[in-house]
Design goal:
This protein has 88 residues and is mainly alpha-helical. The chain has one domain. The protein has 3 helices and no strands.
Length: 88
Amino acid sequence: MFRGVLKIIRAEIEKKHGAAKAKKWFDRHVAVLKELDFVGHFSRAPRMHLPEELGALQAACTAYVAAYREVYPNHPIGELDLDLTGDE
């Protein structure tokens, strides 16, 4: 869903700043938002998550943090404990 909104914004950026800048803007935002889209899908499940789903969520959260730090280096999100397994 978010890609449709980003494509509209990308088209406006392309009109004012050219295709290269628009693509760069689009790609960096998609890098962050695709992981949030995945997490959002599973967060709506009205049940306990299966072990493989927890692993996939763990991977998506880790990928989100990495993408966020790369795309927005001046906006730190701090250190997060991303262990979703519940193991101490």
